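## retry 2 of 3
previous attempt timed out at serialization; input unchanged, resubmitting
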Amino acid sequence: MEFEYRNRKTVLIIDDDPAITESTRLALEAFGYDVQTAGDGATGLALTEERKPDLIILDMMMPKRSGFLVLETLRQLDTDPTRVIMITANEGNRHKEYAEQLGVDAYIRKPFPMETLIAEVQRLLGEA
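## retry succeeded, writing output
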């Protein structure tokens, strides 16, 4: 069991909505991922530095530091960029285009079917 645990992929969820965080965490854990969570961007960046997740699920609109600022910081600091899925309730294409310019790996609008998110996680982690 210990060997399997060490080889599990780690996903960090950075979102200020406890319902979305919890449902996403449970779904990812059911697929065998090790899941960490942060309720704001500043905490998310600190956890990223400390734990080096394989993938980040990042909400766009959050207190303390928006998803855009987190993504900008990640891309400036990381020579081997962590995969990032941005999730948002925002309908505008301008935000999607900006996220893509910053180097987001996937962009999903809320509400989303959990299967869509899981499929993107698996694709980005090379497990699809």
